[in-house]
Design the sequence.
DNA sequence: AATGAATGAGGGTTCATTCAT
DNA sequence: AATGAATGAACCCTCATTCAT
């Protein structure tokens, strides 16, 4: 009688794009782009099929908007965490890096990594986009940190690019893993990505720290570590 | 031991499924399962659309056969490399592990990792399959190697599971990367996965090697490495 | 004679339907009814989509209003030209008829012929409408003129209905042509419909004028003109 | 029991295109291109929706194929009728021309005229096609005939282009009329296009025949026929 | 065993129409 | 009266699958 909950189904032009982007990110990550129906996205965003097309010209456009939004507003934002840090490089890698990664890992943003992996070959302009917005700035950021550690004598004179990838690839993999095998019932509950990240960074740091001039020498790219 | 040569007349017939599997692996990895048309697979295998359905009851069946074949005959096969090895654990990780990974990386088999990542959530029985055939045996294998290193005093008493993932995740990521961003024109040519694998293993080994009882202590899972 | 000026404030409101009708005529003629979007009509009329539906219950209603308006206020209006005329029948056909046709041809009204041709079969009540409002009065009008020419001895005793159609069909065709091929870039610029109309009427008049009892006799419907 | 009529629904690759073209011509002419559903065409051709797309890449492609087929195989073919004729020009116009027109008029081919009129503005390349395949050859053909009549003294020295259009436009109009108003229930049953064509040609011929040098002079393009 | 013509359910997209503002 | 966000039926086209040959 009191119609307390009138379906507020109209006039939300401002909110629509974000609702659609959120729904689309979830579904594209979960099922893949091709296997997600436009109507599903609309439904999860709480609107009708037609409404989606008021905001995005096509399903492909929606995909690109999803990626673009994640890259420009979320991943890039993470950089400040690192820039703000003051203190030892080891502490930076250990605390700040891992904290930032966990934030990404715990947010829906982690899904973009799976999305990029799965879809980039069908939409090649995503590649350039991702390289420019994520890979390059991310690698530069961490490179500078590692280089700082070498310069101030904390680390051996290792191959910086190698270290960057050794640090980062597992984290990227964890994000994609989270949305693939990690989301399947009966996957390895034993493995905890959160504690892994800390441990992994520590392990790499152990490999970086000066070994007091004694062997093994610092690996530099190729087949180092020879006695 | 004997009749290794199939009679030439029948070879064609028996080769069909393999041609189809190869074509399907390529295409599913490249474009994703949903975006690959059954007819494309047939075409690339050199047969007609109808023929595909003589061998596989549905496109989904074909996918599962592809995965099953890769897992049972290729990835698992790699394990022997490791089992056969005798010598220091560091050398095992450095040489044999990296050699085996490169073999996988350079073969079409590397594609299954991307395939699994992209498709498990739509076909959940793949998950159990992959866990059972790849994750568990793989982790056990490497765990035993690392444990051997701890037992014989080469390594500090680290968290074995952590090390396994720190070793393996980048390699898995490299395989999926190879078939996504790595296959796009204009990706970072600078980064060489082959040299990375060796360097990465060395870096982790440096983290494992005994640090003479002096700090930093061995990381054990969580937030170790505190002063 | 009086209040020709509507109060300016209300003019807008009353002008709306006319703006919509004009826009609709243009677009329906140009693209066809089914291929014209209601929103386009509104846009060209300078109003919003919703406003269109304040004045017309549906797109089909709008079509019928367009036709009805053209037929009742424009084409029919032309008839007076003819009725007012006094003088020889040949002169009437030559001057007045051609002048009236040119007026129609040069106005947007010419489009209705294309519209009728293209759309009657999908909206059969247009047919009866058009027959009653245009075909019948038009034919009667010209029939009377031609009959007058026969009665006063200017013309041979030809089949009146034949002459009417011979006179009129090319003009109708010119109107539809103007809005189809005639509006396409690269159509025959050589052909000038305006001069054609005069020439055509003259040519038909030559066929009507008494041939002084000499053959060929006047055609009467079927296969006349025999020696 | 005796399954006398097995539905011969398969394997008719050869016949399909023609069946589809015939069905499409009918429906496009009847309802217009935009208002015809692809599935309707398929149904009328006795096949399923998907089959249509085995033969034509899109509905638009089908339209163009329909036009192309009609123009190249039917209308153009008519020219030979005229070329073969030997005899007086008046007889040629009267008998052969009218006979050929009736053939066109009575066949489904007559529909292309309505189709062109209705659709050409939405598919501009049809215009060039129609100009090249129909208008130009058709006008040249009849022009030569009329010129022959002038040259051999049968006709006055009239404006040839004018005569051609005076002859042809009514016929084109009849064809389009047949498929629009002419197909509506309750149209003017009184008017018989078949007898009209003969009568019309005769009437024009009367206008062409030499008037013994006495007035009215031959119309030449503009406003001739002045005393 | 192999083919490829045929099918028809399914999904992307459009657009006439409605209605809260 | 006017707007334009929202709806959802309808339509074009695709493609997994079947089956007569």
Sequence:
């Amino acid at each position: 009688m009191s119609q307390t909950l009138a379906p507020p189904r109209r006039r939300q032009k401002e909110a629509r794009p974000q609702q659609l982007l959120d729904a689309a990110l979830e579904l594209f990550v979960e099922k893949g782009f091709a296997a997600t129906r436009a109507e599903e996205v609309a439904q999860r965003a709480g609107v009708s099929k037609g409404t989606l097309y008021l905001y995005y010209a096509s399903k492909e456009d929606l995909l690109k908007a999803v990626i673009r939004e994640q890259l420009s507003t979320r991943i890039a934002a993470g950089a400040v965490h690192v820039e703000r840090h003051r203190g030892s490089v080891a502490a930076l890698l250990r605390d700040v890096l891992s904290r930032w990664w966990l934030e990404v890992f715990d947010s829906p943003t982690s899904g973009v990594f799976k999305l990029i992996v799965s879809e980039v070959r069908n939409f090649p302009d995503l590649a350039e986009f991702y390289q420019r917005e994520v890979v390059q700035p991310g690698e530069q950021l961490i490179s500078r940190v590692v280089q700082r550690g070498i310069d101030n004598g904390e680390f051996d004179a290792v191959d910086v690019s190698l270290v960057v990838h050794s640090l980062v690839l597992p984290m990227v993999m964890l994000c994609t893993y989270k949305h693939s095998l990690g989301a399947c019932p009966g996957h390895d509950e034993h493995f905890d990505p959160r504690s892994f990240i800390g441990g992994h960074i520590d392990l790499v740091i152990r490999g970086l720290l000066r070994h007091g001039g004694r062997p093994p020498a610092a690996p530099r790219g190729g087949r180092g570590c020879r006695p």
